[in-house]
Amino acid sequence: MQEKSGAYIILPVYNEARIINRVIEEITQAGYHRIIAVNDGSSDDTFSLLNQHELIVLRHLINRGKGAAIKTGVEAAKTFGAKVVVTMDADGQHNPQDIEKMLQAVQNGYDVALGSRPKSPKTMPLTKIVANCVGNIVTWLIFGLWVSDSQSGFRVYSQKAINLIDTASDRYEYESEVIKEIKRHKLKFIEIPIEERYTDYSKNKTHKQNFINGLKTAIKLILSA
Amino acid sequence: MLKLNLYQIILGATALFFLATALIKFFSGRRTQTFFKLLSAIVIWGSILIFSLFPNLNHNISRMFGLGENLNTLIFIGFVAVFVMIFKIINIIERIEKNISEIVRKEALGHLEDKKTTPHDLPQL
């Protein structure tokens, strides 16, 4: 298949053996073949499943968190001279068809395109909507930049952005730290509506951002301010 | 002659035991006993030892800081010490966490060179 763009897709993967094959197939079917998967210390078959695909697989020997895995993926993409980097979740929540419009925004001169999930009770669980609002407010209060979805992991970065953004967070607070970096480096950003697919699988995952993890994230953000 | 109550003897003996253990561990060169840990032990157990042997010291400190009761002074100092320790511990944990992530990342990226030599692993630009 013809490569759609020079974009590198970074997938932080942790215990996604049940769904990872489908996620990778969807991405490649959408026309993106430069995939860097960072297996973040999974204890299931994720790593061996990833190796069955034609993609770059990196492995964290122990679990270090989503932020740490993305950073490893970005570092790898830099060594390949990536012009554009896409980060997305590996649990099938993000639709690879949305990558194109986000890439378009970056090609039109934006440094960062932030995926923004619809905040409707029809498409997003109510607890998620509340958690998202709290996350946005905490991010705004601490970092001074308002975005409608500070916790979305679906983002596209230009080469300039990946060279400037320097994060230290390992876990879920990574997403908010990127917002801080956008403000610090005065990067041009745009929020683009994306589809969010909440499946039984994604809703029942134990290691996802839940209320307690959300609280921990908020505390870490406050302490890091 | 110093007249001691039972609680003073128990507290003093406990503090002495932990102080002696910390000092022995440090001077016998145990790797787990760092200078910072020794210093913390001296400050914490040393304070307990002094306050248990000389409880009237509280009066002087209370007067010096303008605080009323002895107990208030102790609680106040205790809270300050606990908060300082918590923040210190958080900083140490954060630093260790970052170091672990860096090591794990370097290890993961170390295998990237092998992958670059495999044609199908390196998509052509």
Description:
The complex is a heterodimer of chains A (225) and B (125). Chain A has 225 residues and is α/β, with parallel strands linked by helices. Chain A has a single domain (7-224), classed as Spore Coat Polysaccharide Biosynthesis Protein SpsA, Chain A, CATH 3.90.550. Chain A has nine helices and seven strands. Chain A has helices spanning 20-29, 46-50, 66-79, 99-107, 126-143, 159-164, 174-184, 200-204, 211-224, and strands at residues 7-13, 35-40, 56-60, 84-87, 112-116, 155-158, 189-193. Chain A has a seven-stranded mixed sheet, sandwiched between helices. The longest helix of chain A has 18 residues, at 126-143. Chain B starts with 5 loop residues before the first helix and ends in a 9-residue tail after the last helix. Chain B is mainly α. Chain B is elongated, with a radius of gyration of 25 Å. In chain B, helix 1 packs antiparallel against helix 2 (35-53) and helix 3 crosses helix 4 (70-110).
* Beta strand % of chain A: 15-25%
Distance between the termini of chain A: 46 Å
In CATH, the architecture of chain A is: Alpha-Beta Complex
Structural class of chain A: alpha/beta
Largest sheet of chain A: 7 strands, mixed
Q: How many DSSP E strands of chain B?
A: 0
Total number of strands of chain A: 7
CATH superfamily of chain A: Spore Coat Polysaccharide Biosynthesis Protein SpsA, Chain A
Percent of residues in helices of chain B: over 70%
Shape of chain B: elongated
Quote the average pLDDT of chain A. 88
DSSP helix fraction of chain A: 40-55%
Series of secondary-structure elements of chain A, N-terminal to C-terminal: EHEHEHEHEHEHHEHH
Using the CA coordinates, give the radius of gyration of chain B. Answer: 25 Å
Classify the oligomer. Answer: heterodimer
The most extensive interface between chains reads:
A-B, 27 and 18 residues
Global mean pLDDT of chain B: 80
Top CATH class of chain A: Alpha Beta
How can the largest sheet of chain B be summarized?
Answer: none
